[in-house]
From TrEMBL:
A Pfam family that the UniProt record links to this protein: Ras
Matches recorded under InterPro entries: P-loop_NTPase, Rab_GTPases_membrane_traffic, Small_GTP-bd, Small_GTPase
One example GO MF annotation: GTPase activity
Protein name listed in UniProt: (Perigord truffle) hypothetical protein
Top-level taxon of origin: Eukaryota
PANTHER family: DRAB11-RELATED
Family: Belongs to the small GTPase superfamily. Rab family.
PROSITE patterns: RAB, RAS, RHO
Amino acid sequence: MPQPWDYIAKVVNIGDSGCGKSSLTIRLCEGRFNPTHDVTIGVEFGSRIIPVDTSPTAQKIKLQIWDTAGQESFRAITKSYFRGATGALLVYDISRRATFTHATEWLEELRGAADANISIILVGNKCDLGNDKREVPIEEARAWAEGNGIKAFVETSAKTGEGVEEAFVDCAREIYRNIKSGVYDLNDKSHGIKTNTAKTSLSMDEQTKVRGGCC
């Protein structure tokens, strides 16, 4: 059955190259994992409609997910996509400490370009690798998130699907709380969020389609 949505919100996936940002989007939108996914050049897109609570009449947010390139050579292009973002997943690889260290730079760039009220989720990906390959302890990541004003931290595995839904749902719910609190002017397109006054219905194929972008 096609599902209507109440709001559409722009969400960006950011972080170093090779952290699994594209794989997280594909896992959420298509329910699959591709171990040989090509490196993102510029930006790729996906979308998913998410109910913000468990009630039968729950409001639904369509997350328009912008999966950005993490390579240094595309940094200026990537930053341009931050404008108008309502939410962000800041992704690092739990087995590569450098990707966690660089999260500070990504956060500074995001907050310098995006709306001050952007909903940010810290995501430690590749938790399926296990503690023998872990370089970033959970407690350290959680403390870093709290210290930097990030309201949610989730460890995920794009390979197994663990935590992926939770990460995007946390982001959608935080965006919804901001909507209900009157944080956004829904008539101002620069906020990256829009009300669906027509309650447009989309097919499941349209909801889950991920298409490539270019720089």
